[in-house]
Amino acid sequence: MVVIVGGLIVMISIIVGFTMAGGKVASLIHLSEFITIGGAALGALVIMSPMKVIKDLIRGVIQTLKGSPYGKPACVEMFKLLYALARLVRQEGLLALDQHVNKPDESPLIQQHPKVAKNHHASHFLCDGLAMIIDGTVESGQLHEWLEEEIKVVEREHHAATGALAKTADALPGFGIVAAVLGIVVTMGAIGGPVEEIGYKVGAALVGTFLGILMAYGFFAPMAARMEALGEQEILFLRAVAVGVVAINDGVSPKDVVIRARRVVNTDCRPTQGELKEMFG
Fold it and tell me: Which 3 state secondary structure label does DSSP give 1?
């Protein structure tokens, strides 16, 4: 929603300013320019990106438009789940985790926290981490390294998607110039025609440059930056899960498990003292 509102602000500001200066909005609409610039950008994206990166990019853009699934509500549910799992281990031992880890979709404990359970990436990361400690033989230092390696893979894949979008944004002004040059070529072919026709074709050529710059700095580059910020939020969420899993392996109290994990996430995602009291109650 924030991305959509921001995009509307960009468009409305440009249109209002253009009309205040005496321009007509219809003069900015040239389908040929959209096809030239959009098609060239899409082709460049396909050339430089493997299919997995393109799929990750599409998912990332959709998620950016929908909003982050790793905000405070998700963090609070994650802390509650870690607290419940830590209590279970303290009461029944590590082997009690087995039924929840092997079939998380059937685990009533995990399903009570839908923002974690329905996030397959987060729930699988949690269950994979817990599976490593069930036999009680792994050292916490080694466990931390294994979980951090998995997080680095997620981080690397996310950077690949955002990097592809950022490089496309960098290329768009160039494609705008290409569209403008093509428009000038068309104009030169009509140089002996009416002045109105020549002016229309020159205007269409200039719109190509305008669209390339607008799409680059008004939409694609901000979208890439937004995706990068949401990706960092996801990484912090996974690191908090990793800290919680290591704390459970250390055998600390459920309260300390939450306190350790809480330190990792952003301050705006941390539960308040009142929420913590309710959680520990």
Answer: coil
